Amino acid sequence: MSQDLDLELFNLTKRYGKTVAVDAISYHFDAGTYACLLGPSGCGKSSTLRMIAGHESVSDGAVLLAGRDISHLPPAKRGTAMMFQNYALFPHLSVLENVGFSLKMQGVDAATYRKRAKEMLELVDMVPLADRLPEQLSGGQQQRAALARALITEPQVLLLDEPLSALDPFLRIRMRGELKRLQRELGITFIHVTHGQDEALALADEIVVMNNAVIEQAGKTRAVFDAPKTAFVAKFLGSHNVVAMPEGTLAIRADALELRAPEGARLPGTITNIEYQGTHVALTAAIAGDQEVTALLSDKEFFGNPKELGEAIGLDWEAAAAHALAS
Fold it and tell me: 138: which DSSP letter?
């Protein structure tokens, strides 16, 4: 994929009156990347996506696509397309007409836009449902129709605003696979907003973790997961315990904590919760300093030597499973 199609945010800022929703963020997305903007509600991720799309004005800074400043262009002129959280399908139009609508508005003749719409429906496996109205579709089918409608304009960047949030858990996992397959087939950049850590880890080549209107940490997904730089990122990704030790604050992978006898262990504690989660057991213990840590144990490991609530235990770890945090 050519670097000529890279997307870059440069000191991008969004203010609503005196409230700063996005505070001078900068980031470079390589062309053909599947990236997730991840963070809690109100962190600025959706405002960022909407500024890229042109559905929110840019207060300061710039959005560059293929080296061109698109910050003040209308959405249809940017080379981006957006798939909205609620899908925003026209209720009175068939699936085919919904998908072809933007081409029709551009003055493309009926035969051509219908042919292109059918090609897009083939891409998302929806041709048999082309004549149905949106209300006759399931949530997953509505999502596929909305995806086809976004892709028909041949965008250089597809923007997805929490596209899986309305789906049940089983369908959500299935649709994750569909999105990843489509992104690989099309080879275009996907920028996907979510507050779901599992969703981001499953889909993204790289993640951008936002907090309080700024980028807290960003990079290749596995690199961020394995080495969170701040306590916020470690806790938000759910992969690490954040523990204050005499020598500093450490992030310790939950799946790397090992049970020991309390005597001599680096973290002696008392079990406060045991949660069976199928393939593993989450064991939570209270430790010194009014802190809690969670260890993820395989079901075989736990049930081979079961523990009880209130039992004293020790926890230890290999050196590579922990690292010092910046904050």
Answer: -
